[in-house]
């Protein structure tokens, strides 16, 4: 049996080649960044010296600005937003300076960060010769904090779109509990099932500040978590090993967990089997909801062929019954996680199975996007609604010197996850 990403790629290629208005069913033009700061923002406003700098993914409405969701079609046809998205309320109240709207994968339906309209940011972890992806869909948000252009960035995460770019760029990214942060004024991909808003930052203190701009009172919750668990010895962490992971990445993850002093519990095959199914079901829901919300753009000129193919794949999931079956299995996966969190505090696994691949020299394709998405270990926790944090950890003997540890917690455990991230980062010195 072929791996799931090859089956996904085959389906996407078939759908793409059936699109009658496109001259090519695989390739789209892209403008890879020569410098890490290229193509990060679609709009940029310099900050006064000494101010806290917040970058906002261009899926989040800013009053008076067009929300493009990574699409030239929307950039041209969307009216300016009448008001800020609800998730910006605390940042505005505290006088935080918004430095710009960040670039992203079109409509958030792909995970590489390749954007044929506004250019493709590259990860700052690599040099000009070895340009690797920044990850999607919150690519510009991750690069903005990795390069210091912003102190904090807001991204959206439907299937890993905060954690994947965080992993590709060597920064921290937090996927919040589903429903915790309002989605009013956020471009929808899966608002009824998977969509979340979360912060990215280069340091844990900045990530905590970013979370405090999304949830009132978070500072107190984080202080309580630090006081309750000042070190890792009192935290039980369930370790999930994922098939297809680079052995050096597994070693890096295990080393980071050991140095942090966590009490490690290896999760059993029954849990792994449930997780494997949740990964498949989460992807099914993601593409199914992309069809529901983005179908009006599936025949618009100016929308890329890769994006159109991904949207139309969601229609297939609805027609064949895969979408409804995946929805029915969600409650069982949530119960499995609740039982698991009865015996461990957190779950640990790599954010990505492999290091980020190179930006395609001749543009993106449905095959490249399918293979890239197959590297993620993230969508199962969007499917369940649990919060998760991506934490950079060093990896040995690789061109990209950093990989990413993903820690997952029970619902509303964002403070505990940041505290665990603090413990891990303190042991890397």
UniProtKB/TrEMBL annotation:
Keyword Phosphoprotein part of the UniProt annotation: no
UniProt cross-references to Gene3D superfamilies, sorted A to Z: Amidase signature (AS) domain
SUPFAM superfamilies hit by this protein: Amidase signature (AS) enzymes
Ranges where the Amidase domain occurs: 54-418
Segment forming the signal sequence: 1-28
InterPro entries: Amidase, Amidase_CS, Amidase_dom, AS_sf
Alphabetical UniProt keywords: Signal
Pfam families attached to this UniProt entry: Amidase
Family to which the UniProt record says this protein belongs: Belongs to the amidase family.
Protein name: Amidase
Upper taxonomic lineage: Bacteria, Pseudomonadati, Verrucomicrobiota, Verrucomicrobiia, Verrucomicrobiales
């Amino acid at each position: 049996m072929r791996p799931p990403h090859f089956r996904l790629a085959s389906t996407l290629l078939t759908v793409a080649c059936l699109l009658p208005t496109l001259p090519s069913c695989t390739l789209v033009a892209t403008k890879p960044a020569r410098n890490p700061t290229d193509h990060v923002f679609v709009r940029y406003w310099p900050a006064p010296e000494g101010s806290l700098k917040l970058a906002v993914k261009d899926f989040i409405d800013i009053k008076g600005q067009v929300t493009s969701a990574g699409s030239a079609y929307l950039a041209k046809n969307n009216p300016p937003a009448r008001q800020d998205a609800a998730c910006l309320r605390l940042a505005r109240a505290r006088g935080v300076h918004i430095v710009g709207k960040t670039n992203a994968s079109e409509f958030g339906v792909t995970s590489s960060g390749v954007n044929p309209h506004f250019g493709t940011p590259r990860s700052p972890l690599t040099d000009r010769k070895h340009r690797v992806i920044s990850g999607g869909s919150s690519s510009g948000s991750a690069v903005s904090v990795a390069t210091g252009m912003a102190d904090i960035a807001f991204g959206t995460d439907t299937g890993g779109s905060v954690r994947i770019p965080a992993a590709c760029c060597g920064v921290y990214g937090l996927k919040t509990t589903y429903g915790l942060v309002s989605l009013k004024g956020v471009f929808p991909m899966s608002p009824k099932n998977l969509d979340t808003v979360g912060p990215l930052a280069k340091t844990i203190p900045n990530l905590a500040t970013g979370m405090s701009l999304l949830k009132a009172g978070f500072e107190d919750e984080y202080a309580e978590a630090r006081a309750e668990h000042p070190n890792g010895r009192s935290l039980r962490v369930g370790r999930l090993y994922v098939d297809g992971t680079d052995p050096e990445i597994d070693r890096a993850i295990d080393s980071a967990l050991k140095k942090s002093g966590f009490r490690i519990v290896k999760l059993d095959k029954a849990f792994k089997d449930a997780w494997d199914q949740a990964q498949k079901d989460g992807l099914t829901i993601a593409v199914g909801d992309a069809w529901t919300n983005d179908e009006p753009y599936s025949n618009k000129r100016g929308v890329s062929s890769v994006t159109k193919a991904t949207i139309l794949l969601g229609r297939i999931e609805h027609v064949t019954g895969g979408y409804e079956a995946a929805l029915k299995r969600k409650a069982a996966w949530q119960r499995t996680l609740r039982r698991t969190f009865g015996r461990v505090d957190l779950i640990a696994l790599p954010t990505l199975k492999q290091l980020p691949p190179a930006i395609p020299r001749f543009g993106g394709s449905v095959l490249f996007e399918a293979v890239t998405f197959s590297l993620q270990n993230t969508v199962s926790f969007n499917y369940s609604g649990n919060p998760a944090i991506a934490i950079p950890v060093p990896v040995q003997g690789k061109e990209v010197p950093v990989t990413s540890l993903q820690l997952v917690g029970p619902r509303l455990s964002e403070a505990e996850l940041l505290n665990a991230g603090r413990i891990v980062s303190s042991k890397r010195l």
